[in-house]
Protein 1
Amino acid sequence: MKGILKFILFLEIVLLCSCVNDEKRSGAFGGMSLHLSANSSVTDVTTRSSEEVLPSIQDFSISVLQGDKVQASWDKLSDYDEDTTFPVGSYTLKAFYGDIEKEGFDSPYYEGTTDFNIRGGETTPVETTCKLANTKISIEYTDDFKQYFKTYSSTVQAELGSEVSFSSGETRAAYVKPGRISVKLTFTKVNGGLSPTTIEVATIEEALAQHHYHLQMNVDAGKAMLSIVFDRVTEVRPITLDISDKALNIKPPYFTLTGFEKTSNDGNQWDGNPIESNQLSALLTSLGGFTKCILRTTSPNLPDWPEEGFNLAALTPEDQALLDKSGVKLIGFGINQDQMGIINFTGLIPNLNITDNNDTHLFYLSATSTYGKQSEDYVLNITTPKNFMLLPTEPVKMKSKEVTIPVKLKEGNPQNIKLYYRYYGVMTLINNTVITPIEGKEGYYNIKASGIDMGVVAKDFQAEYNGLKSAIVSVAVIIPSYSVILEPFDVWSYTAEMTIIPEYAEDMSNVMSAIEAYISLNGSTWTKVDAKDLKLDVTTGKAVISGLTPGTTYYFRTTCDDGTTYSIPVMQATESVIQLPDFTQGWGKTIFSGTIN
């Protein structure tokens, strides 16, 4: 008996392997052949730097992605097996060398991507060229510069990147992230004091990848002026800074805060609470003027703000519009700037909501004077008021037309609360709401909203009270469980009749009103059944699919939540069309004459 069982198991394994191989041969899978190349060229009109030494193509890492999901990856191209197959579909090849996060000398990062399609039973050629994704920076000091300073060094830092230090004898180029790049100089004069001075000498606002920027620093000793000259590749104009003792002794820019309290003795961190203060603002003072005032945030409520922040001293019309929209008001910036400027955050407060139970929003401030001196970095923590908030609620049934959400309002008239929900991507006011107090909980209310359509996926809700917005609360939707039955005798040449059975009979109407059917020839690539080919009977739970091809094996599945979840696929074959013989063909006629006994 054991021998028989082993033999049966062996047959099952053989059949399974055979099915997998048949699937590959059937055209559900395909392969790719790779060809990578690297391009070390940079936009550079000078010949001062040596030619880039390319890494070996075989050392490049490769990944195959569908959307943002990595389907396969290899640490080195040399590890890739060209017999590897992928299901039919659209993919992206990403090839790279190095790490964009590793900034410094001898740290180039190359990257290339190519979109391609895998076709069944074919090998797709895929080519991509990897280019330098960093910005290169070189710094050169003239002889006059070297004689004027006793000690000197420079630092280069990309926005949100790491600081790279250039010693006085450094001649190599550094690799940093593209974007806004700041260059600082630290020095002591030959005839100056012992304490080093650090000033920001240059900013490249939009440094590009695959570009090499050369900076040359020079000093006019007679005028005590430092000049920074860029090569012709950039659009940055030459910069001249006053480095006289008088200029260097001027106090760096600083901020005076209203409505904030300092929370750290070893840093410049400040807390602002709009409940306790009717104004939150920052006054910038910079003797001699300022060339830069950076304001940025990590608040999820301000997604339109650029990650690198705004330079309030050089706002574009688009920047100004974003600040106006968010409620930030400025005085003393722009073309009329002098030595002071005010940033008023008070109008911003209604736009700061509690997100994922987090009621704090961080803002970062810094400034640079016309003499290159920098302020301290200020971290402002603004807290969203907690006396008004929308509270989590229980899930509702799919396609519900009403929902009840609790809200907390410690002070004020609850009838002034407005409720919104996200409808086709837009927060839409709900006109039909009834607000009643929750018994035994002072300051808590229920908002019953009707005349809405909860649909089949979770919906976002937000409350507003006198201009103050709550955090967004997502209300989940309960999707009824159901099963799909499709027996061989339910499938004919051109049609298939599925039976939908909900877990609870009362859910039949909801399920059947939202059912969508999908068919597939291979179990991986699915096609939605057109509405004209799908007939639904809410009473019996029958779902009849027409327009099928005779003698064909199909996979069937359904969804009632717009494709968030699917039923378990069912496989059945349609009947072949049988042609009956024509009985009028091949028959002769004989006249019988006689007697039949």
Protein 2
Amino acid sequence: SLALSHTPSALFFFFFQSSKPIMEKRRRARINESLSQLKTLILDALKKDSSRHSKLEKADILEMTVKHLRNLQRAQMTVALSTDPTVLGKYRAGFSECMNEVTRFLSTCEGVNSEVRTRLLSHLANCMSQINAMNYCQPLPPPPPGQAGVTGASHAAFGQPLHVHLPGSLGNG
């Protein structure tokens, strides 16, 4: 029986079990180092004083980063819309395709509450009508309060500023 405890698989199991805490410690150290770098980057990007934000929680760092990246995405979309006339058509087509896929999925998904299904499809249809109303000559009105809007630069070919409202998520704006 002593010989069985020294089989290659038993030794591997012992080594693997004893190295788990070390691997977990390294994983946590990598996460914490990345969060520290992310904190520095996001505070610099938002022009915030790092000495006043020395004790940010991990969740706060991640939330600030997500919000900042969404704002950058919206700004890039606005620039693209104001400089490339094909972007809006591509965006419409992609949104429409995604909306159709959500509709197909919901029609086959039995676990979704009918009120939630109706609200989601209504929200997507409303977003789609806003997207379809977008054009380069007649800017959209500003988005409702609490929803992010982006104003792009004027484009000489279209003569006036481009105002774009990119649909946010349900409830969070």
Protein 3
Amino acid sequence: MVSLEEEILKRYAQKSEEPSSAAGGEGKETASLEDMILGGDAASDGPEEREAPEEDILERYTSEDPESVEAPEPVAEPSPGGDEEMTPGEDLEIDALAIERPAPAMEPRRGPPAMPASPEEVVETLRRLREDVGQISELSAEEENIVAAFSLAFLKLMEPLTKALPVDVSVLPRELGLVERANVVPKGDLVLLYADGRMESVDLTERDNRDLLITVVSDVMPRFNNLISQRRDKIEERITFLSSVTRELQTIADSFETVG
């Protein structure tokens, strides 16, 4: 592509070859070309200022050969602030990309392979198992004795106090069903009254009902303690009353003896 200075020099060479009519005309042409090249800097020292001829030359140049002028490159405008929120559509596109990209599969950690137990270890395990079974048998026999002693003591203490102790039905296991009322009788049975009118009795001393025995005893022991306290208070009240009455009666009896 031809530059502006080359085009000016080319035109100057063409004009210099043509015959001129007068020397003054040649000087004028030379001065005008110099002004075009230098941009009017040399002529600006005169008393009158002249306009720079670059604009006219550039206008003629662009009108004759518009394709020779390079179009200015478009300046990219700054994008909006990076802190602006994304639209819902952009969020969905990002989410879709995140879903399409599968996460790298992680291989499960494998520990060292289990080594088979040696014959010595097997024998030692069986020995410990035999000891545990022996202890279970001893503990079961001791539990039987304790439960029997508990039932006898509970019977002896409960008979003079009350005929039945109420049990909170909320502590009973769900396997018993929809129980409306529950009571413990002195012989150690749990009497259950259902909403449909049925009544059942559960022997708490049986081996299968040991956990239920612990639950029931934990619930009724505070009530049992209150019964004993109430019984003591009643006895004290009776003693106080009878002592006062007895003293008065003795005084009256002594008075009759004196009169008689």
